Amino acid sequence: MRRIEKKILGLNDKIVALVEERRLVAEELSYHRHINDDAQRDAAIGDSNDRSFARASRRDVARFEAAELRLSVKISQLTEKRDHLLKALDE
Length: 91
Description:
CATH class: Mainly Alpha
Number of domains: 1
Helix content: over 70%
Structural class: mainly alpha
Radius of gyration: 20 Å
Shape: rod-shaped
CATH topology: Helix Hairpins
Largest sheet: none
Distance between the termini: 16 Å
Order of helices and strands: HH
């Protein structure tokens, strides 16, 4: 097996792992969004503890959104790199 083929296979493995990680992060994000929705409603009529939890919940959602975006960007970069190597392999 040529070196370029090994690189392509390695990139494929990384992409598959990142896609799975992004799926898990997306599921966790969905969970935190539901909690955040409830927390924001509770904060509107609740006490300082409810408002504090709502702020923390909002930060959790933002953190998971950022993680999902970073994973998507990394997947796109690796896919582009793999596609470039595939073109070079065809030549």
